[in-house]
Amino acid sequence: MAMFPGAHNFGISHSNSIVRETHYHTEDIQMEIQPPGYIRGMTNCPRSTLAFTGRNEISESLEKFFLKTTFPTKQKVFLLYGLGGVGKTQTALEFKQRLSLKKRLTKIYFSKANTEQSIQASYFVIVIDNGIVQAQDWHAGIHWLHSNEESWFIIMDNADDPKIHLAKYLPSCGHGNIIITSRNPDLQDVAAQSLEVQNMVPTEGIQLLSEKAVGGPLTADQEKKVAQIAKKQRKRLSTYLERLQNLRKQILQKEIPQSSDGYPLSIYATSKLSWDELDSSPII
Question: Is the Cβ–Cβ distance between 45 and 94 less than 8 Å?
Fold first, then answer.
C-alpha cells in the first residue's frame, strides 16, 4: 500500500532551501468537513514585489532572530506591527526569500489571518498538502505542524482583529518559524520578539524613486531637487484635509454622471488632489 494514496510529482530538492510539494487528485480526498473559505492552494506563499527597496535594519533584525538566535526548545515567532500600508507584508515576503537561501526550510506557508475562517481554512490546506486524507477538520493541520519536528515557516498575514485569540492558532511546540504581520501591537504577547514597521526613511525613499522614476542612481542635482520637493510636500500635508474638503464641495456642485464602478466621490476627490499635486510639481 502506498504511503500517500493518490500522490504524484513528489520530489525533494538538494538545495539549501528544501521545499517539498505533494499534489493530490481532489477526487481521491474524502474529507468529511471542509471549513468555509477553503480554497485549494490558498497557502502558497507569493513573492515580494520586484520594486521592494530598503528595510535593511528590519531585515537584519529578522536575520539575527531566525538565524543567529538559539532557542533550543522554543518556537521562533516574530511580530511585525505597524500602520496599514507601511510595508509589513512585503517586508515579511522579502525576508522569506532571503531566509530560504540561507536556511533549510522544509515547508513554507502563507496564511491570511484577518479572520478565523481564513486561518482555519489555511490549516485545512496544510492537512491536504501533507497527505492526511482522513483528517476530520482544520485542527489536524496544527497537529501536523506540532508533531513534525521540521524547519517549517509560516507567514500569518494581517492578523489585525483583536477579537481573534491568535495564540490558539499557533502550534504549541518547540520548533518551527512564524512571522506575524499586524496593526495590533498587543500581539507582542504571543511573539518572542517584535518590531514596529514605520514609514520609509528618506534615503530609502530616494533609492526607490531613483530606481522606478529615472532607472538608476540620482545625480547630485537630482537628489537636491528631490529634497526640495519633499520639503515642499511636507508643508502641504498640514493643509491637506482642508484642501480635500474644499475639493469635495467643488465636485459635488458639478453634474457628474453616476459612476459605473461604484467609486464614491471621496475616492475621486483624493485621487484628483494627488494628480493635481503631481501636475504642479517640477520634473526631476
Answer: no
